[in-house]
Design brief:
The protein contains 14 helices and 5 strands. The chain has 452 residues and is an alpha+beta fold. The protein has 2 domains: 8-285, Rhopdopsin 7-helix transmembrane proteins (Up-down Bundle); 298-448, Reverse transcriptase/Diguanylate cyclase domain (Alpha-Beta Plaits, 2-Layer Sandwich), CATH 3.30.70. A 5-stranded mixed sheet has the order 2-3-1-4-5, sandwiched between helices. A hairpin with a 4-residue loop joins β2 (362-365) and β3 (370-376). α2 (39-67) packs parallel to α8 (247-290) and α11 packs across α12 (339-356). The relative contact order is 0.08. The chain crosses the membrane at residues 12-32, 38-60, 72-93, 113-136, 148-168, 194-213, 220-238, 258-275. Residues 318-452 form the GGDEF domain.
């Protein structure tokens, strides 16, 4: 069954392309026409930057593939940009002594255009290959053997194109193609009437293939489609001039460079998004590891780890109080109203405990209906007052005031112990508070007992 074409995404893409290309074209035109004095070195300088940008993108794609082997389609894009960077080295070789502002007559514009043609061929074919691999990424094809076979095909095609570009440039007299006259700088009819239009058509095929297969599912494919549109516009800019001495020659390369910078910016945004998602997952995972799933109070392990960390505070003379509490007759509530209602009671009590302590204090569930509080820099008198406030807060609620969380009024027994020196181990501190809590239960329940 064919999926409905995402018209809304396509309209968003068209809007982005129109605005982006118009802005980039406007700024590139202004720049080129206002700084003609740097024209001799502008093209090779932009080519050098473009080579670095394409290398960065290729490395980025390889790294993403190594992080997730299910994204084999990224290797086709990586190979496309890596091959493009290599061909730009050939372009720089066509500008001898460019960094010393060499004479224009020394430039081999024909080789430059040949390398440009093969760059476009490699990128369009490998972009289409990437889209095809993306379309079948969910299939059972991600074995080592299949990856090696596909990667060999991708690299083999790129190597063949690189060799052909080298042979068709000035390095093999037997193979040559005339695209521009190095003496008059005029484009040949082969370039103007055939090859330039052929590249436009190939990029259009690539663009529509990308849109219809990926359906612009995410920002990555949005940026890929925008990149295709920019290359089509670059070719149209080249068509507007008749020779390599015109503004269009430099404007096309500047436009290509700026659009590639935009793609890198999008990739950085993608990295930031992935980092944020990963960090959020890590934080959620960490919180789940230290919190009780029912009450979201801290768990027993975190309680003891926090108590151990507070020993430095105790050594400095700051008292630390431990409060251990247990619900009275909780088994009767479970037996009479069911465990689901019992869970609601525990959640209600946990909320009261959390609201009764300071932000830096630790409220934990250390047993079924047993809770513990860790109060830093709190003496015995203050801890007793806090425990009494908790006992009264829980005892004053009934079914109505608790919004049916409590099926009937409940009470709680609380034990308190305050440690002032390091002579008492952490486990012993908790045991003493627990013993005080059992004394409270043994003397009638619903009360606070301080360990002595």
């Amino acid at each position: 069954m064919l999926l409905k074409f995402p018209l809304q995404r396509f309209l968003i893409y068209i809007t982005i392309c129109l605005i982006g290309i118009l802005l980039l074209n406007h700024f590139s035109t202004i720049f080129i026409r206002h700084v003609p004095s740097i024209a001799p070195i502008l093209f090779p300088t932009l080519t050098m930057f473009l080579m670095v940008f394409h290398t960065m993108i290729a490395v980025f794609m390889v790294m993403k593939y190594l992080c997730d082997r299910q994204r084999l389609y990224l290797m086709a894009i990586a190979c496309a940009f890596a091959s493009s960077a290599i061909l730009m080295m050939g372009t720089l070789n066509s500008y001898p002594m460019w960094f010393l502002c060499g004479a224009a007559s020394e430039v081999n514009y024909n080789d430059t255009l040949i390398f440009y043609f093969f760059r476009n061929i490699i990128m369009t074919v490998l972009f289409i290959a990437s889209v095809g691999l993306y379309a079948i990424k969910s299939r059972d094809m991600h074995s080592t053997r299949n990856h090696i076979f596909i990667l060999c095909g991708i690299f083999g095609f790129a190597i063949i194109m690189l060799i052909l570009s080298w042979l068709y440039s000035s390095h093999n007299p037997a193979l040559s193609v005339h695209l521009v006259d190095n003496a008059t700088y005029q484009y040949s009819e082969t370039w103007n009437d055939i090859m330039n239009w052929a590249l436009v058509i190939i990029w259009l095929v690539t663009l529509f293939t990308l849109i219809f297969i990926t359906r612009l599912n995410n920002i990555f494919w949005y940026s890929g489609a925008f990149f295709c549109a920019c290359y089509i516009f670059t070719l149209l800019v080249l068509m507007s001039g008749q020779d390599t001495a015109s503004y269009s020659w430099y404007q096309a390369r500047l436009f290509e460079t700026i659009s590639t910078m935009f793609l890198i910016f999008v990739l950085f945004c993608d990295v930031f998004t992935l980092y944020r998602q990963s960090n959020t997952k890590y934080l959620n995972s960490y919180q789940n590891s230290i919190r009780d799933p029912l009450t979201r109070l801290y768990n027993r392990s975190y309680f003891y780890d926090s108590f151990t960390a507070l020993q430095a505070s105790i050594a400095s003379g700051n008292p630390v109080s431990v409060i251990v509490s247990d619900l009275d007759h909780f088994k009767r509530i479970n037996d009479k109203y069911g465990h689901l209602q019992g869970d609601k009671v525990i959640q209600f009590v946990a909320k009261v405990l959390q609201d009764s302590v300071r932000q830096n204090d630790i409220a934990a569930r250390i047993g079924g209906e047993e809770f513990a509080l860790l109060l830093a820099n709190t003496d015995a008198e203050e801890a007793h007052a806090i425990a009494e406030r908790i006992r009264l807060a829980i005892g004053q609620h009934d079914s109505n005031s608790s919004q049916d969380k409590l099926p009937e009024p409940i009470t709680i027994s609380i034990g308190v112990f305050t440690v002032t020196d390091l002579s008492v181990p952490v486990e012993e501190c908790v045991r003493r508070a627990d013993e005080a809590m059992y004394r409270a239960k043994g003397t009638g329940r619903n009360r606070v007992v301080v360990w002595e």
